[in-house]
Amino acid sequence: MTTYSFLDDYSEGCHPEIVAALADTNLAQQTAYGNDDYSIEAHRLMANECGDPDLPVHFVSGGTLANLIIAAATLRSHEAMISASSGHVAARETGAIEATGHKIITMPSADGKLTAADVEGALAANAQYPHMAKPRLVYVSNATELGTVYTPDELHALRAVCTQNDLLLMIDGARLGVALASERAQGMSLADIAAVADIFWVGGTKAGTLFGEAIVIANPALATDFDYHLKQRGALLAKGRALGLQFQTLFGPDDLFRRAAVTANDAARVLAEGITGAGHPLAAATESNQVFPVLPNPLIAALQEQFRFYLWEERADDRSVVRLVTSWATDQAQVERFVDLVVSA
User: Fold this and answer.
1) Residue 52 φ/ψ, nearest 5 degrees
2) What is the mean pLDDT of residues 16-43?
3) What is the pLDDT, as a whole number, of residue 1?
4) Looking at residue 2, what is its pLDDT?
5) Which residues pair with residue 140 across a beta bridge?
6) Which phi and psi angles does 139 have, rounded to 5°?
7) pLDDT tens by residue, 249-302
8) Collapsing DSSP states into helix, strand and coil, what is residue 135?
9) Bridge-partner residues for 107, per DSSP?
């Protein structure tokens, strides 16, 4: 590639430590379908991180698959999911949830986050029994589509409203690593996430794995027959070892999961500070590894000659919002080069 990409956090293959682990174990024979030594150890490591060695952990290949399996496994045919209108399930999964037969009730959100008040509003607007789909599952992503991060108080408020209204709380953790490494998380851990969510998943694809996400079932009532849903949706891989080994490496003693997230967040912070220092505002606060600067269109065109990024929102004043995403592999020299071009424009 002749240009450097800030399009996403999975442009590279995977972290070198994971490549090494895959190479070192390549010829070792293992049992299939997630019953291999690596998956068993990854399960143990992640369950312990979540504060309960008995928590079920299931590894799947991708995020959309994780979301639709959770919807299919936890919702009855008349039940619905509540999401921010910008939520990934509502905006960027090709109707995957709807294809399972379930309605998504969307609520507007300026910062990508769903609040307890939003949940109460969705309940009030969908309460005409039995003529409306019944809200049952509250979906949030952390970090959000705008890179914003939930504070502990915000998550506890969501937990409280869910408990009060017999709702399930689900957290899409495609970028949970960078969320937990954010200052906004105030030191929250996977154990804290497991304490507020009924079910959540931990993203590996955007945290340094070649592919893979880990579904954690914190509410034991949701664990029954979950394996059947995995198999039915094509998520039970014969070579589940490849998933298990990657998560074993992420959550091993070297704490790769957190190290990768800190690297991504630090690069985003440098980008954000450099861009705002040059006098350009941000459309959303930079709280994790996504940066949303508002730049003049001529400057955007000049930057696109050397960098790839999303044109997020066109505005009427000859300015547009772009999205820059950093990762565990972001080249610091490229970050500095981008900032220098913005400053010198």
Assistant:
1) -150, 110
2) 98
3) 56
4) 83
5) 171
6) -105, 125
7) 999 999 999 999 999 999 999 999 999 999 999 999 999 999 999 999 999 999
8) strand
9) 84
Contact residues for 234 (Cβ-Cβ < 8 A; gap 6+): 65
Q: End-to-end CA distance of the chain, in Å? A: 24
Q: Is 9 within 8 Å of 327 (Cβ atoms)?
A: yes
The number of residues making up the chain comes to 345
Backbone angles phi, psi at 324, to 5 degrees: -115, 130
pLDDT tens column, 190-238: 999 999 999 999 999 999 999 999 999 999 999 999 999 999 999 999 9
**β-pairing, 319-325 with 290-296?**
antiparallel
Count CB-CB contacts under 10 A for residue 8: 17
Contact 11, 205 (CB under 8 A): no
Helix, strand and coil percent figures for the chain, each rounded to 5: 40, 20, 40
**The model's pTM:** 0.97
Question: Rounded to the nearest 5°, which phi and psi values hold at 39?
Answer: -65, -40
* CA nearest to 81, candidates 147, 140, 127, 129: 140
- Give the mean model confidence (pLDDT) for residues 22-34: 98
Q: What is the DSSP string of 246-303?
A: HHHHHTSTT-HHHHHHHHHHHHHHHHHHHHHHTT--EEE---SSEEEEEEEHHHHHHH
Arithmetic mean of pLDDT over the chain: 97
